[in-house]
Amino acid sequence: MSVRSPRTVAPWVRTRIRSAPGAALALALLVAVTAFLAAALPRAVDRYGDAGLHRTLRSAEPDRTTVLLADPRPGSGLPQEEREAAVRADALRADHSEILALAPGLLSVDPDQSAYGVRTFEEQVMDEPWLPRPDGLPARLTFVAQSGLGDHSRPREGRLPEARGTVTAATEGVEGAVTADTARDLRIEVGSVLDIPGVERAPLRIRITGIVEPREPRGAYWSTDPLLRTPGLTPLPGDPDLRQYWQGRVLLPPDAAPALLGTAAVPVRYWQLAPSVTALHGYDAARLKSAVAALESGPALQRVRTATSPDVTASTELDDVLAEYTGLRSAIGPMVSVAAFGTGTVAAVVLVMAGSLAADRRRAELTLLRARGGSLRGVAGRLLAETAVVAVPAAALGLAAALLAFPGARPEYAVAAAGAVALLGCLALPLRAVAAHRSVRVHGGREDIVSARPSRRRTVAEVTLLALAVGAVVALRTHGTSDGATASGDPLVSLAPVLVGTIAAFVLVRLYPLPLRGLARAARRLRGAVGHLSLARAGRASGSAVLPLLGLLTALTTAAFGGSVLTGVDDARERAAVLTVGADARVESPYPLPSGLTDRVRRAPGVREVTALSVARFARPGNDTRTVPVAGVDPAGYAALTRHTGIGAFDQEALEASGASEALPALASPEVAGRHGTRPFPVRMEDGTSVTVRIALVRERTPAVVGEEFLVVDRSGLSARSARPTLLLATGDHPDGAALRAAAGGGTPVLLRAEERAGYVDSPLQSGAERVYTAAVAAGAGYAVLALLLTLVRAAPERAALLARLRTMGLTRVQGRRLLVLESLPQALLAALGGVLTAWATIRLLAPGIDLTAVALPATASSAGRAALRTDPVSLLVPALAVVVLTVGVATAQAWWTGRRGSVRELRVGDAR
Asked: Buried-most residue among 163, 390, 474, 745 (CB within 10 A)?
């Protein structure tokens, strides 16, 4: 009996990876970096979205963000004992627990900063003679029995108030406390007594036992009602003299609330629900708005009423604050998504190109496998296992790096993005191999871009994709410009570079052979062989050039679009800063400036010119009841300033006062010119003098005045008092702010254009979106370079073998370098020219629907107008030229390197291939 020896079969995956470790390592690196970028993008967006929401909520102050629930008639219609029980601390605490349980979970109520209690609805006019009366009006106080006073304050003098015994509506006196600010401003001391008028009983006496210091004065506990912490002066409503009186709050112990039922102050139960700012997320802003609406007037409020009282009402401005945030986020989002989709498309193209390059490199191996009986499914399965072993761990490593680099964000989108990268990295090689080896064949036909005739199947696919892209672009253009609507919420905006790039790639690939054929015919008349040979070699390029061309066009379009966005943002901020300051520096005072200040400012470092002006803020033109700022200027200097800043430039002769005319020529805003026309009219100045002016020029803006209404006249025509300078506008190269402030003195404000510009980014949404956009554009540029290198590497062995053969025929090194450069130029010029045209078309397409104002400027800088997207020539041309330079550089380097190696070795490599 013969014993059959076992066969040893080397595993496919291990063998292939060991045979080409460099290719496996390159694929792993590409997948890991791509997975990291894909996973990092949504987490970075979440991070800056959360930071923007937190900044918005904190800047809004708790008096706007806290939800206030109030029961205006506690125990209405019930016996006195039940009314007293309804306002006691135990009942309010139980109701507070019920409300916290019924509040929407998205609100993330902070129990530490939330509070409940009883307060008087009507302010009490206090007759105590020792309380301050600034305009002869008595102070008005509100009495508040709020929970948690001991936890949120510490006694500064005396002790915390207590409720001794059982307090009822008939109790004659209780204890109270005030904050340190209230005690200081209202002159309240420990031991002071305040009386509240009673109803069918004696006044309720409140004796102050302590002065407390808030532990967190900016927290919601103290800031939901700012007067709880700090009193304020309030004008008397309807008083023509605008007399003021003090408003303040007096703190009572929670169990002392029943005593307020016997007064005329109308006690009200309330519950303050303060959201936990750090627990809220930007991506939940829309759902959070719905939750707040449900608590204000929806199902959540009905449940609260069922659990507490049918008279409970809810009020908050949190929904308005969230609307401000969502408006800014929705305006910023489309521009970030444009970069994300463009970069994602280029990355996907590079992954597919890497798989295609690997399939071409192993064409002979796979052809032999198919010729020896290998099934298409078996070959594809082995290739899939081979790439999965490399791509899946690499994608997991990239995902882990993204999770560590951007903590505190949602993992779902990051996992999905990294999974998509891993899937594409695994499938690129098997699918390309299946497409190339569907049928068993040893030799394939030529695929020259000039001579190849695309199949009907490819033509149908191209026409279908082209029709879809054209239809989407037409829909985007129609939606983005109709009735002045923006396309900010349209997903087609994000796909615009890809759509336009798809159209351009199909069209350019179809048109590319035409100029090559014409140039080839013209090159036949040339004496040298390099030109004709280079054109012939360019025509021998692969006919399936749509994919790399699409990647390059999308990358160039995204880079140009990103550069135009960033340039537009920078220009908008610069313009807004100039409009606000009026020059490079602004020194302004409501009173006349010292006589020597102009010379001191002119001597400050960085200052080149100083223009002195007088500005009367409250001049009254004609019979108009409205006041208008009037600026008195030196026409020559002011005209030069307007030309320098580009704000309302004019000729000085049009504004110079003439002795022959009694009316001063004036430069006016359109609003003032529309009211007064061109006929002379008097203007009463602040010093009581009057001057007659005639509007000769109309400009929308002027450096001297920030606003939509102004008059500018020759200062020589004003009285000596009205002509005294109150404003200095300085121009120069980076004026020194410290030197200017030292020259102006502490009482004169100094405003610098550079400082104003730096302060325009007031939200993490703006700065975060700008950083993400810049990173996405840089990543897209990197992938574009990689796509170009892959395209050149694909043809490198063949070019090296060609040069070696030609060297044996007498081709010099200079001619070889020239041959490779000229061979590469047609495709490089195609990509560069197509990139410029595609980027220009995309920017023109999206410009009507893209508003850069939200990214560039805060909401307070509305005077700068709309920041529109426009073409930036540098962003258009530099990336395109970089493609040409890189292509020529690689071709030159390859020719130099090939010349250093021996021709016999290159011929062997070429023959082996």
From this structure: 390
- CB atoms closer than 10 angstroms to residue 463: 11
* Selection from 512, 492, 502, 486 nearest residue 557 by Cα: 502
pTM of the model: 0.79
Q: SS3 sequence, 53-120?
A: HHHHHHHHCHHHHCEEEEECCCCCCCCHHHHHHHCCHHHHHHHHHHHHHHCCHHHCECCCCCEEEEEE
CA distances 110 to 106, 297, 583, 618, 686, Å, are: 12, 21, 47, 48, 53
C-alpha 82/C-alpha 88 separation (Å) is: 10
Tens of pLDDT, residues 257-303: 999 998 888 899 999 999 999 899 988 998 999 999 999 989 999 99
Separation of alpha carbons 549 and 380, rounded Å: 27
**Secondary structure, 3-state, 386-423:** HHHHHHHHHHHHHHHHHHHHCCCCCCHHHHHHHHHHHH
Structure tokens at 388: 């999965």
Q: What is the pLDDT of residues 766-818, one digit of tens each?
A: 888 888 888 888 888 888 888 878 877 776 776 777 677 767 776 677 776 77
895 pLDDT higher than 80: no
pLDDT per residue over 586-613, tens digit each?
A: 998 888 888 888 888 888 898 888 989 9
Element (H, E) at 168: none
Q: What's the rounded Cα separation, in Å, for the pair 534 and 509?
A: 19
SS3 (DSSP) at 271 = strand
